[in-house]
Specification:
Blueprint lengths: L10 H9 L2 H6 L8 E4 L7 E7 L2 E7 L3 E2 L3 E5 L4 H15 L7 E5 L4 E4 L7 E2 H7 L6 H14 L8 H12 L2 H13 L16 H8 L2 H16 L3 E3 L8 E3 L4 E3 L6 E3 L1 H18 L11 H20 L1 H6 L2 H24 L5 H4 L4 H21 L6 H10 L2
Antiparallel strand pairs: 1-2, 2-3, 3-7, 4-5, 6-7, 8-10, 9-12, 10-11
Helix pairs in contact: 5-11, 7-9, 10-11, 10-13, 10-15, 13-15
Bound molecules: adenosine-5'-diphosphate, 5-S-methyl-5-thio-alpha-D-ribofuranose (SR1) and magnesium ion (3 copies).
Length: 395
């Protein structure tokens, strides 16, 4: 890690930094005397500033040497900013429509300057809570996942190039170890930072810890996550890492990027959509029972997989057997990502914003039971349509 030259910035010191950095100043049209700067980071790890001038805009993201959610008692390598900038650049080269441009990267400062994904873009998770439909989301995300995953895999690249990539991202090991802990280990044992909607879900969380069959399955997925360098993953592809309008889909925040199993990214996206599905009853009111919206979420899950699968380029490259195991991997990882959001450290706004704890617990329990059943029985599913029927049976 580059120690020299690092200092945490704030709204005030960021102005001087921008003035001294031509690549950033130019994006603001050189109009640096009346900047508006606001820290908007609502994620678990980093600090994010929106910078506006009367002639331009940008976003600055800085990693500090700890996890923001917990504080400096949980140190974390600032090199995550390097991997985020590298992955944004690589994935943008493959899929420019859905990845924002990096304007500037300062490794010593762990700082990225990038495109401000302007309003009316909002974080997809917030759109899902508000009940907004995004007609192009499935098509855009299928395109993003197909391009970023297949074209960073051995289906496309030489072993020499692939191994170079694997070697580069191997150093993002602290972030991988964080995932190993908070997704694949802690939810299945008594761990310091685990929480759940207590007392309603106490027994459900204990049942997860005592379920030998479930733990065997999660151990298999954990091994795959650690060992299988299949493609350059985003590494944290939940609905809080996607910004949307009805016409546009932009994927941000790949700081967990590494060469891992493709199903981990696909599962993160699909699993978080299933979480959104089960949270809808907690957001229903007299004006909107959310029934039609739930159908749209299920259709989006189905279309996302089917469009990813049907992409003609991919079919040419990949054998049926390859796609079937990718499907089952995606279902396994998707379930793991659902379970950790209910009994692990990092919860999701979809459920957290349901104020009535008993109502929240009831939504969470259905999602948890659905995820446990998918994780254990994932190899039996032959199509995404069967998964949709299964999800509905827990509603
Ligand atoms: P973290 O790594 O801490 O999760 P994120 O990259 O997810 O940080 O960013 C946190 C928040 O900052 C996002 O939820 C979004 O609201 C905002 N944000 C991040 N990047 C951009 C961007 N390029 N344009 C607009 N808003 C952004
Ligand atoms: C301490 S765990 C924080 C979580 O937030 C990130 O976005 C990742 O999902 C990580 O697991
Ligand atoms: Mg984030
Ligand atoms: Mg992040
Ligand atoms: Mg997740």
């Amino acid at each position: 890690q580059q120690q020299q030259g690092f200092r945490p910035l704030d709204e005030a010191s960021l102005v001087a930094y921008i003035k001294a950095t031509p690549a950033l100043a130019a994006r603001l049209g050189g109009r640096l005397d009346a900047l508006t700067i606001k820290e908007v980071g609502d994620g678990n790890l980093n600090f994010v500033y929106i910078v506006l001038s009367d002639a331009g805009s940008l976003v600055i993201k800085q990693a500090l040497p700890y996890i923001r959610l917990v504080g400096d008692s949980w140190p974390m390598s600032r090199e995550r900013a390097y991997f985020e900038a590298s992955a944004l650049q690589k994935h943008r080269a493959l899929c420019p429509d859905h990845v924002p441009e990096v304007y500037h990267f300062d490794r010593a400062m762990s700082l990225i300057g990038m495109r401000y994904i302007e309003p009316p873009h909002i974080i997809l998770r917030k759109g899902l809570i508000a009940g907004v439909e995004y007609p192009l989301l499935a098509e855009h995300m299928a395109d993003y996942m197909a391009k970023t995953l297949f074209f960073t895999s051995l289906l496309y690249n030489s072993t020499t190039d692939h191994k170079k990539g694997v070697a580069q991202y191997c150093d993002n090991v602290e972030m991988c170890r964080l995932t190993e802990q908070v997704v694949f280990s802690d939810p299945y044992m008594l761990a310091k930072y685990n929480r759940c909607t207590s007392p309603f879900l106490d027994n459900d969380a204990a049942a997860v810890r005592e379920d030998a069959e479930l733990k065997l399955e999660i151990a298999e997925l954990k091994s795959m996550f650690i060992e299988r360098a299949q493609a350059l993953l985003h590494g944290d592809l939940h609905t809080g890492s996607i910004m949307v309008t009805p016409d546009s889909t932009q994927v941000i925040d790949p700081e967990f990027a590494f060469y891992g199993p493709m199903g981990y990214d696909i599962g993160a996206f699909l699993g978080n959509l299933i979480l959104a599905y089960f949270s809808q009853d907690g957001h229903a009111d007299q004006a909107n029972d959310r029934k039609a919206y739930k159908k749209w979420i299920l259709k989006t899950i189905e279309d996302s997989w089917n469009l990813f699968h049907k992409n003609s380029e991919l079919l040419r490259l990949a054998q049926k057997k390859y796609m079937t195991s990718l499907f089952h991997d995606s279902l396994g990882f998707g379930s793991a990502k659902m379970i950790r959001r209910i009994v692990g450290i990092a919860h999701v706004e979809d459920f957290e914003s349901i104020e009535d704890a008993s109502k929240r617990a009831s939504c969470e329990r259905r999602a948890l039971n659905c995820a446990k059943a998918i994780l254990k029985g994932r190899r039996q599913f032959e199509s995404i349509g069967q998964v949709i029927v299964h999800v509905q049976s827990f509603d």
